Amino acid sequence: MSDTIRKVGVIGAGQMGNGIAHVCALAGYDVALNDLSEERIHAGLATINGNIARQVSKGLVSEEARKEALARIVPATTLEALADCDFVIEAATENEEVKRKIFTALCPVLKPEAMLGTNTSSISITRLAAATDRPERFIGVHFMNPVPLMQLVEIIRGIATEDPTYEATKTFIAKLGKTATLAEDFPAFIVNRILLPMINEAIYTLYEGVGSVESIDTAMRLGANHPMGPLQLADFIGLDTCLSIMQVLYEGLADSKYRPCPLLVKYVEAGWLGRKTKRGFYDYRGDKPVPTR
Ligand SMILES: NC(=O)c1ccc[n+]([C@@H]2O[C@H](COP(=O)([O-])OP(=O)(O)OC[C@H]3O[C@@H](n4cnc5c(N)ncnc54)[C@H](O)[C@@H]3O)[C@@H](O)[C@H]2O)c1
């Protein structure tokens, strides 16, 4: 089973889904890309097109490989279009209800032997697996953002994930040219268990007036040698995703140290979700991001 994946389905054509489709197609997999509407799928395809073109201009990918990769990705406007996939990776909005509904609708159309993965940043793999008809072939594959550039993929086994599923996933991640680490199925796994409380603390630091957006980001870039400030990173991840992860940590670990900062909650309520809505801790409408506080 460890090398039986030929066609990959990706559900969600947002920043993660289109990145996953991009790296799968470049690695030689056939890809079917699904989202809620044709417009969103085409927006995802346009992003992939632009991102692979950038890799060509940097000499990282040949023109021929670009053309071949783009030809391998087909839009899938219905879940039925994923019926012949060997591995389907769900990368839809970070909301447990949304993901459960997708799995309930998807399972009846899949081949019995198909594997299912989720790119969730924080939700229990065991619980999501239980919403499917194949918990033994269900696994967490947590890609990092931006997918084409980031080397790591966290693999998370649910309690029912069987060894052949894990082995096939490791082979798949290696074929993508990525490095896998294994994380246990605890809220937010490893990377976000450590990263998100740091980002949440940076937002508290802003909320309490300890520093401005600029001073907090400069402090962490130059004082802790982070490549990006924590507020810039929050905008990049998406503030809705950041809030969902903090809520999963807060509820899942029942510890007040994970309480989402009220300012983060307010920004999400305002629809200020970061780069994807052109406003978060920075305003992205002009040529250069402008700090908002
Ligand atoms: N943003 C990050 O840095 C990051 C990093 C790692 C993992 N993740 C995880 O990846 C997943 C996607 O996050 P994102 O940043 O790409 O979000 P996003 O908002 O950019 O994209 C989500 C996409 O899912 C689509 N969608 C929603 N419901 C759907 C449905 N029922 N069927 C098909 N498509 C549906 C939306 O239309 C949207 O295009 C989340 O689980 C998130 O936690 C995000």
From TrEMBL:
Annotated InterPro entries: 3-OHacyl-CoA_DH, 3-OHacyl-CoA_DH_CS, 3-OHacyl-CoA_DH_NAD-bd, 3HC_DH_C, 6-PGluconate_DH-like_C_sf, 6PGD_dom2, NAD(P)-bd_dom_sf
Keyword Oxidoreductase in record: yes
GO molecular function terms attached to this record: 3-hydroxybutyryl-CoA dehydrogenase activity
Domain 3-hydroxyacyl-CoA dehydrogenase C-terminal: 189-284
Keyword line: Oxidoreductase
Top-tier EC class: oxidoreductase
SUPFAM superfamilies for the chain: 6-phosphogluconate dehydrogenase C-terminal domain-like, NAD(P)-binding Rossmann-fold domains
Pfam family, one: 3HCDH_N
Top-level taxon of the source organism: Bacteria
Entry EC no(s): 1.1.1.157
Domain 3-hydroxyacyl-CoA dehydrogenase NAD binding, first and last residues per copy: 7-185
Family from the record: Belongs to the 3-hydroxyacyl-CoA dehydrogenase family.
Listed name of the protein: 3-hydroxybutyryl-CoA dehydrogenase
